[in-house]
Recover the amino acids of this structure.
């Protein structure tokens, strides 16, 4: 969806800034907000670009840098940690050859360690874009990554 | 029966997306009853029920409601569904299983307080819950339970969903207000309190998802009957998010006064592989860490307040003998380093120094002096931070120094 179409859905009030940013980001293939987007939002809401950047830099889910097609977020809080999330993370590092915060060379995957996903009843958990995967084992992770790679072919 | 299902009675029995299914299962009976009552009578029932907020702080719900009822228009009601505290998943499960009960509770409170506009602030990680709540709002509007002229009684209440963007501190009420205004979630100095000056400086009431889900039951059974559940100081039931090294992780609903041990062993079926318990963290990353011998403690606001921290969220994280307390503390403290909004110095600088000290002690490089510094700094952060984040983040450190002192001494250099 083009940015103008997204903007037109919202009233010209700065309180909708976070909603707008989230929608623009989720419509972007690389899950980020470009500086052109910021310029457009600034004009639409009539607020300075610095105000928009103060919001994008504050919130963890918002990014001004392009990410991979699939953003894999592995939970690393205590309920997942004690259910061996470390082996899940290590499996991903092993398969993708990247670490926390990095993106694969083919721009397919970004790996992130994230805060609690609220799925502690089915720990360990991770999220790929908006899809949550729970009760993970290294074997399950292997299948998920292979499936995602297959989808691209 | 240890479980007592009030809030969770419809879980798995109703189709969460169908308002008809909700109505068939007693849904909206409470709203119909409430609309025959005078608004102050509703707040009187809430007061008689003695219900305290379910989001963690445990503030008496009727005080906020009365303050908002006495405030001038425009005024707002906010449902706090920014469940970011590690170890908690109760609000997500309510939203995914019985979303209309939250709306019903909000509409009842809107009628009681005269608010015409409300928000449900859901964390961005809960995409499924966001979708469900959006559909729920539309269904309720279509059927006349929300929006203009609700049930033809001439009263209006409109709801909007706001999505979080990955910030823990936004669960704190003033940070949430800033976020709803489209700004970074940095808290404000209190007082004035939100019911005085909240969103756009207008009176605002913020309650947790579970608190709202309780209101229909209070109206239906009456405040006095509701107050008979639980203990004298903590009435009603509590949803418990049980996680960690237990066999049956999950959500359980128990009356206040139930012991932590019963939840872990009778409902959770004990520790996996029958290992022994090294420690249990209550409430989440901002809660106390207690040893096995304290598990007979009752789940009760008064009991929990002994830790100088309010941990009414109801999370129980069981950690077995394989784990080192310093690993657990470091995960907690690194979490707060990342989540501090940076507005006040004790929280912004303090957490980083706490992590440094913990690493030093964990790696056998710490001295007794470091131990004292850790204790002092933890107290400074707790006592001087601006908002609930820094005021509660040190609970795990302070409690570990009290109950696991030997673990520290085993690592300290002499």
């Amino acid at each position: 969806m083009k940015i103008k179409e997204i903007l037109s859905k919202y009233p010209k009030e700065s309180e909708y800034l976070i909603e707008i940013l989230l929608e623009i980001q989720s419509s972007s293939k690389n899950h980020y907000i470009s500086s052109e987007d910021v310029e457009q939002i600034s004009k639409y809401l009539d607020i300075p670009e610095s105000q928009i950047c103060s919001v994008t830099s504050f919130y963890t889910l918002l990014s001004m840098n392009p990410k991979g097609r699939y953003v894999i977020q592995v939970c690393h809080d205590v309920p997942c940690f004690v259910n061996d999330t470390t082996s899940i993370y290590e499996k991903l590092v092993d398969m993708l050859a990247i670490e926390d915060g990095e993106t694969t060379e083919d721009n397919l995957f970004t790996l992130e360690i994230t805060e609690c996903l609220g799925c502690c009843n089915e720990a360990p958990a991770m999220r790929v874009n908006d899809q949550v995967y729970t009760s993970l084992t290294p074997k399950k992770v292997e299948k998920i990554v292979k499936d995602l790679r297959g989808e691209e072919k | 029966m240890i479980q007592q299902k009030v809030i969770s009675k419809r879980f798995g029995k109703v189709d969460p997306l169908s308002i008809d299914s909700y109505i068939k299962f007693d849904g909206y009976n409470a709203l119909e009853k409430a609309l025959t009552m005078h608004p102050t009578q509703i707040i009187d029932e809430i007061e008689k029920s003695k219900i305290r907020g379910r989001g963690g702080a445990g503030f008496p719900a009727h005080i906020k409601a009365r303050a908002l009822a006495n405030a001038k228009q425009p005024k707002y009601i906010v449902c706090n569904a920014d469940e970011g505290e590690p170890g908690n998943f109760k609000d997500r499960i309510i939203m995914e299983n019985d979303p209309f009960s939250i709306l019903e509770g909000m509409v009842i409170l809107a009628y009681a307080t005269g608010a015409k506009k409300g928000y449900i602030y859901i964390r961005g990680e809960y995409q499924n819950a966001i979708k469900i709540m959006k559909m729920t709002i539309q269904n309720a509007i279509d059927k006349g339970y929300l929006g203009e002229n609700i049930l033809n009684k001439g009263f209006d209440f409109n709801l909007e969903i706001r999505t979080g963007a990955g910030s823990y501190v936004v669960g704190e009420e003033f940070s949430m207000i800033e976020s709803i205004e489209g700004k970074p979630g940095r808290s404000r100095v209190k007082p004035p309190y939100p019911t005085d000056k909240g969103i756009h400086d207008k009176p605002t009431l913020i309650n947790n998802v579970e608190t709202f889900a309780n209101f229909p039951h209070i109206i239906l059974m009456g405040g006095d009957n509701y107050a008979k559940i639980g203990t004298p100081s903590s009435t009603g039931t509590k949803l418990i998010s049980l996680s960690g090294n237990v066999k049956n992780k999950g959500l359980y609903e128990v009356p206040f006064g139930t012991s932590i041990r019963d939840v872990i062993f009778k409902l959770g079926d004990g520790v996996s592989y029958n290992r022994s318990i090294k420690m249990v963290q209550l409430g989440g990353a901002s809660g106390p860490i207690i040893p096995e011998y304290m598990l007979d403690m009752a789940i009760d606001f008064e009991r929990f307040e002994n830790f100088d921290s309010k941990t009414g969220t109801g999370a129980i994280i069981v950690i077995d003998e394989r784990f080192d307390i310093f690993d657990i503390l470091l995960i907690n403290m690194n979490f707060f380093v990342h989540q501090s909004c940076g507005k006040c110095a004790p929280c912004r600088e303090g957490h980083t120094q706490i992590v440094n000290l913990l690493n030093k002690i964990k790696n056998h490089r710490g001295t007794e002096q470091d131990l004292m510094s850790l204790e002092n700094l933890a107290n400074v952060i707790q006592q001087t931070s601006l908002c609930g984040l820094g005021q509660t983040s040190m609970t795990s450190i302070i409690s570990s120094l009290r109950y696991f002192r030997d673990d520290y001494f085993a690592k300290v250099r002499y």
Chain B has three domains: 19-227, 240-320, 325-409.
